[in-house]
């Protein structure tokens, strides 16, 4: 999608949201407008489920539930798959059991597996009892794998052929389908033992000689995955190799399913959202219009930690009260040292967290990256420390104060670089998300460290 297309899509969604909000306001009046209801239903039927999901997330709870009540039953299931997990809960809670059953019955096994954790257990059992044996087996297989594994995301709908047939036979076989499974860009080629031996891209099939054998045309170098592999690693492979679909095989190499690019895009988006939330110290994804207490519970933990670190920073300042009282300029200058250190630390930690998430950095490379970041911090410290040192000299008429600013800023930037590499590396080594609370922790280190370094140097050299 081009930049222009993205802009047009955003504008279209914004216009749809504004119109639906206007219609909802009319329906919320004491005497609802019947014409408004009819227009609302027409607009909803014309929108894609993904667009409706985006609009639902942008509405306050009352408007969201009113809009949801007028979505057609055929749209309910696909919309539940598209909305965030936080908003999904509010929609499911508002649905009667029968309406919920109607919505999930329309979904394929992989969609049911994705929703299962958010659905009432009784609904899951009832839907499973109504599935055909093959679909039930697919659903149970998907539910048997961890949520972040490939097995939980793989699709059983695929096209497979034998290697010892001609391309003409394959074309005749494909014409028997009413429609190919979505995201079908290749056909999986199996040997007599049902073992994956290659793939036949559709673009190769269409231009191949009709008498050519599949074994002659197929590609034998195949990117494949095991069901227990991590979904994030698979998403990185899809990005690296520009994949649309890829086979999932068991330990013996037998084909058991496939991954598609739409699932991998969702994985990357969720990883990105999670990384942003974790950097800010949020425990989980939060509904923008969630009740106050729900938001408080989501945010309190790292706020408590931040309060503790802020208290430590205040005690560092308190221990230098006498120095500050003798040279008031210290009170005006010390936020600069702490602030520039926090900014530099967040730059480093964001880069390291991203490198770990993308697989560009291994734990053993932390030492090399620390040396590189230390070099960057020293150069930046000398440049910007000299600049602020000259300003301090000009303002307060003391060259020694400018030199202390230079030294303090350089040392605090070095501390920020060290902690920016150390914090996410240690988090990953302990099996935790490297982004979890990293922004809070680095700010705490650079604040307390910056105050201590600057006020300590000032006490030694200025007083």
Could you list some keywords that capture this structure?
463 residues, mainly alpha, MgtE N-terminal fold, CBS-domain, Tetracycline Repressor, domain 2, 3 domains, three-stranded mixed β-sheet, two-stranded antiparallel sheet, 5 strands, globular
Would you mind describing this structure in some detail?
The chain is mainly alpha-helical and 463 residues long. It has 3 domains: 13-144, MgtE N-terminal fold (Alpha Horseshoe); 160-276, CBS-domain; 292-461, Orthogonal Bundle (Tetracycline Repressor, domain 2), CATH 1.10.357. It has helices at 3-27, 34-46, 49-57, 61-69, 73-82, 85-93, 97-105, 109-115, 121-130, 133-143, 167-174, 202-207, 214-217, 231-241, 261-279, 292-318, 321-326, 329-358, 366-396, 399-429, 438-461, and strands at residues 160-162, 186-190, 196-201, 245-249, 255-260. The protein has a 3-stranded mixed beta sheet with strand order 1-2-3. Strand 4 (245-249) and strand 5 form a beta hairpin.
């Amino acid at each position: 999608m081009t930049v222009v297309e993205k802009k047009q899509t955003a504008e279209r969604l914004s216009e749809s949201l504004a119109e639906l909000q206007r219609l909802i306001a009319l329906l919320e009046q004491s005497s609802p407008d019947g014409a408004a209801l009819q227009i609302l239903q027409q607009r909803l039927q014309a929108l894609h489920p993904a667009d409706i999901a985006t609009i639902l997330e942008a509405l306050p709870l009352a408007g969201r539930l009113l809009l949801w009540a007028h979505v057609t039953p055929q749209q309910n299931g696909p919309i539940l798959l598209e909305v965030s997990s936080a908003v999904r809960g509010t929609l499911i809670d508002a649905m009667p059991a029968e309406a919920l059953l109607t919505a999930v019955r329309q979904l394929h096994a992989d969609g049911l597996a994705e929703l299962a954790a958010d659905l009432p257990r009784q609904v899951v059992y009832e839907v499973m009892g109504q599935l055909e044996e093959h679909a039930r087996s697919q659903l149970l297989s998907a539910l048997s794998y961890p949520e972040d594994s490939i097995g939980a995301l793989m699709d059983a709908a695929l096209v497979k052929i034998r290697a010892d047939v001609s391309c003409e036979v394959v074309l005749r076989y494909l014409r028997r389908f009413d429609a190919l499974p979505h995201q079908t860009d290749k056909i999986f080629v199996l040997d007599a033992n049902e073992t994956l031996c290659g793939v036949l891209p559709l673009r190769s099939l269409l231009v191949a000689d009709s008498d050519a054998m599949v074994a002659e045309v197929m590609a034998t170098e195949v990117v494949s995955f095991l069901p227990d592999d991590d979904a994030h690693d698979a998403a990185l492979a899809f990005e690296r190799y520009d994949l649309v679909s890829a086979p999932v095989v068991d330990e013996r190499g037998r084909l058991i399913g496939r991954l598609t690019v739409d699932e991998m895009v969702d994985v990357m988006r969720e990883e990105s959202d999670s990384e942003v939330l974790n950097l800010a110290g949020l425990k989980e994804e939060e509904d923008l219009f969630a009740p106050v207490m729900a938001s408080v519970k989501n945010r309190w933990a790292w706020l408590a930690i931040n309060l503790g670190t802020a208290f430590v920073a205040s005690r560092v300042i308190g221990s230098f009260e006498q120095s500050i009282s003798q040279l008031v300029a210290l009170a005006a200058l010390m936020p600069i040292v702490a602030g520039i250190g926090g900014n530099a630390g967040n730059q480093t930690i964001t880069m390291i967290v991203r490198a770990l998430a993308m697989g560009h950095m291994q734990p053993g490379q932390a030492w090399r990256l620390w040396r590189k970041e230390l070099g960057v911090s020293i150069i930046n410290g000398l440049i910007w420390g000299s600049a602020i040192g000259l300003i301090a000299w000009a303002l307060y008429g003391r060259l020694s104060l400018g030199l202390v600013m230079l030294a303090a800023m350089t040392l605090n930037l070095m501390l920020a670089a060290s902690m920016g590499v150390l914090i996410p590396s240690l988090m990953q080594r302990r099996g935790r998300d490297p982004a979890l609370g990293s922004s809070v922790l680095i700010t705490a280190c650079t604040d307390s460290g910056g105050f201590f370094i600057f006020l300590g140097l000032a006490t030694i050299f200025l007083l």
